[in-house]
Fold this protein.
Amino acid sequence: MAAIKLTQKANRERVLEVIQRLGETYPDARCALNFSTPLELLVSVILSAQCTDERVNIVTRELFQRFKTAADYAEAPPEAIEKIIHSCGFYRQKTKSIQNACRALLDRFGGEIPGTMEELLTLDGVGRKTANVVLAECHGVPGIIVDTHCKRVAGRLGFTKNTDPVKIEFDLLKIVPREHQRMFSHYMVFHGRNICHARSARCSQCPLFELCPFPHSAKGKKIAK
Ligand code: SF4
């Protein structure tokens, strides 16, 4: 097999093929968190740190019944939130972040979720990943969401050599066309969960096999199954 070129120009062409194949493989790819308002999404993403989306969705069934507005969260005794989100882990810190973020929403944004990265980053518990999720899903703003799956899969595909999430985001922004950025992020998560696992990448069953340098690398030969 001819060596895969990893220049930015070659990566721009390869990423389009990757997007097409993953689109065919995961036609239902979407945000796995259940939400019906931007505030619900913000709360869900804060809860999802170090926790599975499935667990978050279980917890938010009750949470979203009880708390509907930023004021509901801001004015609640912390224990009322902690009790419900306990099983998500880091429940005290997450409660604090949710309440502080909601107080800031009330103080500075009329209780609504703002629509720019700069504004979202001023909220407690909100980093670029959370902000990009909210912007993409609620405001239709293109962006790359770098989670653990995106970091691993994009790295193995040779689209970035960086390990810092912000540097990875900017590497990917250079090669993924704006109109594909939201779905590219979902594809990375779906592919990481289904085939490109951390400990045993199923390269021989992967639709990206001949587009990916990893199975042909020394490390990949050890991990691929
Ligand atoms: S070929 Fe292997 S390493 Fe590359 S994307 Fe597929 S599963 Fe992941």
The first helix runs from residue 8 to 25. The chain has a mean pLDDT of 95. The CA atoms of residues 149 and 192 lie 5 Å apart. The chain has two domains: 8-30+144-223, 38-139.
